[in-house]
């Protein structure tokens, strides 16, 4: 789907691996078209190469520099160093995609003015090709660049093109979203055990229940609230359970979690946006 283009990853952590796993299993790219590098952890690079059949010689910064598409997947705090080291090597025909939370596309453009940048916010469900990814393009990103990014992320889930001002909310909701889900599962596992089930049985029941509920919602025309009501018999067990979720204000906790995560992304963004301004 992306022909013989090469994709290079700067950063070989959790997010890079999720994307690599997803794009290889989707068949949009062959393992030997992927190149990776990180800061120092060679073992990690070896492990990724072994797991995804990437040739050992592809874990090479020089090759990553030559890639048609470069995906920057380092922590926000490491972006500056990456731009310092890599800045001079980016070339005009390259497309650079950053998945870093909170770093505005203008920040990249201020540092390197000749390259098309795209900011993307996927999530780790890229592993299983069920990511929810939002993308937005910088000033040099044309429709072909956006289309290319769209094709890459489409292969590993759903893609929405959004205005950059919405990226913090996307980050707080769906970028961090898998963690909220896993936290709920952890809590429900503990609940199942306290109710008398073994961990394994609890885990199996919860997972199947969540997958079933998500699939129902995905396939039906009904709102979540309606499906919830259909489970809730008057005076029954669900009502008793929901009473506790209301008493402990689970809804407010979820809202605050997403808003807090969104604000954290905004804080990071502000840090970098202010540097863009002072350099003007
Ligand atoms: N994890 C997630 O769910 C999501 C993460 N993101 C974003 O993805 C980015 C990466 O996150 P994540 O994968 O979790 O982080 P990890 O800590 O798992 O991985 C970061 C990687 O960056 C490498 N790195 C650090 N500095 C450099 C450098 N100067 N040059 C090359 N490589 C470097 C590290 O190498 P080494 O180990 O050698 O130090 C490591 O391989 C973040 O910006 C995050 O905001 C976006 C969406 C979801
Ligand atoms: O926690 C983080 O900062 C990253 C961004 C979204 C998910 N993980």
From TrEMBL:
Pathway(s) where this gene product acts: Amino-acid biosynthesis; L-proline biosynthesis; L-proline from L-glutamate 5-semialdehyde: step 1/1
A Gene Ontology BP annotation from the UniProt entry: L-proline biosynthetic process
EC number, as in UniProt: 1.5.1.2
Claim: Ribonucleoprotein is one of the keywords in the record: no
Residues annotated as binding NADP(+): 10-15, 73-76
UniProt KW Isomerase keyword: no
UniProt domain Pyrroline-5-carboxylate reductase dimerisation: residue ranges: 164-267
Cell compartments where the protein resides: Cytoplasm
Key words of the record: Amino-acid biosynthesis, Cytoplasm, Membrane, NADP, Oxidoreductase, Proline biosynthesis, Transmembrane, Transmembrane helix
Residues covered by the Pyrroline-5-carboxylate reductase catalytic N-terminal domain: 6-102
Catalytic activity: L-proline + NAD(+) = (S)-1-pyrroline-5-carboxylate + NADH + 2 H(+); L-proline + NADP(+) = (S)-1-pyrroline-5-carboxylate + NADPH + 2 H(+)
UniProt xrefs under Gene3D superfamilies: NAD(P)-binding Rossmann-like Domain, ProC C-terminal domain-like
Entry's transmembrane regions: 7-29
PROSITE patterns in UniProt: P5CR (PS00521)
PANTHER family associated with the record: PYRROLINE-5-CARBOXYLATE REDUCTASE, PYRROLINE-5-CARBOXYLATE REDUCTASE 1
HAMAP family, alphabetized: P5C_reductase
Protein name: Pyrroline-5-carboxylate reductase
């Amino acid at each position: 789907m992306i022909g013989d283009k090469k994709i290079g990853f700067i950063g070989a952590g959790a997010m890079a691996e999720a994307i690599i796993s997803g794009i290889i299993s989707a068949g949009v790219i062959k393992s030997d078209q992927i190149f990776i590098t990180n800061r120092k952890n060679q073992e990690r690079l070896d492990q990724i190469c072994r797991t995804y059949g990437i040739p050992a010689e592809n874990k090479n910064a020089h090759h990553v520099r030559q890639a048609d598409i470069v995906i920057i997947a380092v922590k926000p705090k490491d972006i500056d160093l990456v731009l310092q080291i890599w800045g001079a090597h980016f070339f005009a025909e390259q497309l650079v995609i950053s998945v870093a939370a909170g770093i505005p596309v203008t920040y990249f453009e201020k540092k390197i003015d000749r390259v098309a940048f795209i900011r993307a916010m996927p999530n780790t469900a890229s592993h299983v090709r069920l990511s929810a990814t939002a993308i937005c393009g910088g000033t040099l990103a044309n429709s072909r660049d956006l289309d290319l990014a769209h094709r890459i992320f489409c292969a590993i889930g759903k893609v929405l093109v959004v205005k950059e001002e919405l990226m913090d909310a996307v980050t707080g909701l769906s970028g961090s979203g898998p963690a909220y889900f896993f936290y709920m599962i952890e809590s429900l596992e503990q609940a199942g055990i306290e109710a008398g089930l073994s961990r394994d049985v609890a885990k199996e029941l919860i997972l199947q229940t969540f997958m079933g509920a998500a699939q129902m919602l995905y396939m039906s025309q009904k709102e979540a609230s309606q499906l919830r009501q259909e489970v809730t018999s008057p005076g029954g067990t669900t009502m008793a359970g929901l009473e506790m979720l209301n008493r402990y204000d689970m809804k407010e906790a979820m809202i605050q979690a997403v808003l807090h995560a969104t604000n954290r992304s905004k804080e990071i963004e502000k840090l970098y946006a202010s540097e863009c301004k002072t350099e003007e």
